[in-house]
Amino acid sequence: MTLCLVLAFAAAHAQVPNDDIENRRQLRAEETVTSSTVGCTVQRACVDERLTGKCIEYHNDQWFEFRPPATGTYYVNIGGQRCRDVRGVQLVVLTGTPCQLATYRILSCTSLGTQDDLFVPLPNLQAGQPYLLDIDGYLKDYCSFTLQVSGRARGLPVVPAPAVPQGPPAMSRVVTLAWQVPDSLTTARYCRVLRRELHEFRAREIWRQPLAINTYGQRQLVYTLTDTLAAPGQYLYQVVAEGEPADGPPTLLLLRWAAYSQLRPIMPGAVASGVVFLTLPLARYPRGAQLAIIVSNPENGHVLRRLPLAPQAAGPGQGRIYAQSWFDAGIRRVTVDVTCYPPGKPAYTEQLLLPLAAEP
Fold first, then answer.
1. How many CB atoms lie within 10 A of CB 274?
2. Which residues contact 281 (CB under 8 A, 6 or more apart)?
3. Alpha-carbon gap, residue 42 to 110, rounded angstroms
4. How far apart are the C-alpha atoms of 1 and 5, rounded to whole Å?
């Protein structure tokens, strides 16, 4: 029995066969495959981060090859993501001779940013030409996922989210959205409204709006929706116009953040007296490093919050987390696990025991 458990554990964490580029997996059009970045490594001689800039840092990649049966536009559909962190996998599509970096030409480089089902368009692919696909877990994250190269897009378009607003959040839980459907989207049948809180892994559809025809027989172009937030937080809204799968890819019409807080600021940058916060010591980490932070209750190990941060982007208050609800539950100090990814250096993890403190 023990041997069986050991073998099962080893199989669950074994590298995929296409971990190395010479063993890349051949993809057929419309074929859906399931894979995982767990246990994968990097062939440093076969990748060049100078070609992709800040788009991707290689940690645990794997390789695929696709040869289009006909010339045209194809879509890389990535779905079913299950990762430890919020931001999902990264995708690089290129042409060239494997491991001959001078021949590489990058067609697409994308950090998906969430674990939503997403698609990346690849226009003007040539019939019979080999295209290399490299998938990597974001910041050494371990992810399972499905992958398909298809003539039809599935999921949401990959669009970088705007920066989270740094101003004081709204005191009202009511959010009003307004968007317009362009005349050019003649095949769109409805609009999907999706919402995701900053720390949630994927978006959830909260409304589906059929496109209406007015009394003059013309299509209605302007729409509004009022949403009521159930809890404080920072929420990303997306509005996507869609039709039937054969009508073309979904089109993003609106992408915006909305914030709601129950704290009433006294003045810009200030909070009500006596409110409890957790202050993170961001200054102890190298400038430009990426931090993956997990806050938990030291008494029982229960995770209270997961928070990816970038210290170089941290302004006033960015290292401070609202902790009144934890304090009210009897927690006076928390365990903070910080995994630091310094630029160009090995990652490391440290565990801190930090107190909760009230603002004066």
1. 9
2. 319, 352, 354
3. 18
4. 6
- The residue written with tokens 């009210």 in the block is 328
SS3 at position 261: coil
How many whole angstroms separate alpha carbon 223 and alpha carbon 211?
Answer: 9
Mean pLDDT score, 329-349: 87
Which structure tokens are listed for 232?
């404080």
d(CA 118, CA 343): 28
Q: pLDDT tens digit string along 147-166?
A: 999 999 999 999 988 887 76
Per DSSP, 4 falls in state: H
Give the separation between CA 83 and CA 324, rounded to whole angstroms: 29
Using an 8 Å Cβ cutoff, are 356 and 323 in contact?
A: yes
C-alpha 284/C-alpha 263 separation (Å) is 28
% helix, strand, coil for the chain, step of 5: 15, 45, 45
User: Which one has a higher pLDDT value, 306 or 243?
Assistant: 243
Question: Quick one: which of 69, 189, 76, 53 has its CA closest to 130?
Answer: 69
**Residue 54, helix vs strand vs coil:** helix
Apex 249 CA angle, 244 and 250, nearest 5: 85
- Please spell the DSSP secondary structure of 172-200, one letter per residue: -SEEEEEEE--TT-TT--EEEEEEEETT-
Task: With beta carbons less than 8 A apart as the criterion, state whether 341 and 140 touch.
Answer: yes
Q: What is the pTM of this model?
A: 0.70
| Residue 300, both tokens | 């029982």
Phi, psi of 213 (to 5 degrees): -115, 130
Residues 266-284: pLDDT tens digits? Answer: 344 444 446 788 888 888 8
How far is the C-alpha of 116 from the C-alpha of 240, rounded, in Å?
14
3-state secondary structure (DSSP) of residue 360? coil
Query: DSSP string spanning 209-224?
Result: EEPPB-TTSPBP-EEE
